[in-house]
Here is the input.
Amino acid sequence: MRTHSKLAGIVAAGAAVALALTGCASNASSGDDTASGDEMETITVNFGYIPDFNGTSLLAIAEDQGYWEKYGLEVETPSFTNGPLQIQALGTGDLDFGYIGPGAFWLPASGEAKIVAMNTLGQSDRVVGQPGNDTIEDLRGKTVAVPEGTSGDMILTLALEQAGMTKDDVELVPMEPSAIVSALASGQVEGAGFWYPALATVKEQVPDLVEIAQNSDFEDTVAFPTAFVAGNDVVENEPEKVERVLKALRDAITFRYENPDEAVALTAAYNALDEADVAADASNNKVLSLEELDTLTEDGTVDSWLTGMVDYFVGSGKLESAVDTSFYTGDLFLQAGE
Here is the structure.
């Protein structure tokens, strides 16, 4: 059951900005011997999300298909504008679980949370420029907006590095996502490290906006996975809660892969968005099957993604030194399918 958030302050602010921005699987996926929700004590879960396809689709599916109830979960889903805000809420205990994009992976890598499930491979990030700014070099000395600590920050850093530049070569302006939409649309900034679907809103007013760099430009060296995270205390002290949530997510992953059009429709309804806009958003990401996610976890591919990301975060100054990939609890994700 989806209920209204009781969180205060930061959650309410996140939800307000998000609104401004956004204008049946079988038991085999999670184990056949799981008792139904009616036969177990209900566990309450606070699960943060971002109102886009990556951040919402599994939660929308879990609600619609009854997966929360199937595993005895009553889930509150407060909306956020980015991953770092959710990591903060995990640390204070206001959230149990949340969703993050690749730009926020440095936070669990630094010990502030655990990644409990991989989600999709993001392909929606861009470095964009106003008309006339055709290359990253054209942005030298100009105002460039970025939501700090996000995948927009990450792709801007990578694009600058590829051109032999750093953030010192541009006039960097940290902004919230909704402010970037307004700043780009009004021409107040010359460029940005940002993402779809918000960029689609900008292009309605700036149709000649230039896409200077995108995720695929760096796929040989850095992956852009999205993921679900949990608070450290939740992982350590509430194993049953973690297992039940992961079982529900696994069911939803299977449904999403097998029913892509319905996944888009459910996400659109959940966020009160136009279905065509959500479909366009989904097309900018690679949806992985449950079998793929299990295999990629088992064969070490996910660890290689995370190692590459750690190296990037060390180079960009987000992490002081390299760390191992134990911040991803892949063993728990796999065990939830047994």
Confidence is low (pLDDT under 50) at residues 3-35. The chain has 15 helices and twelve strands. Residues 47 and 77 are 5 Å apart (CA to CA).
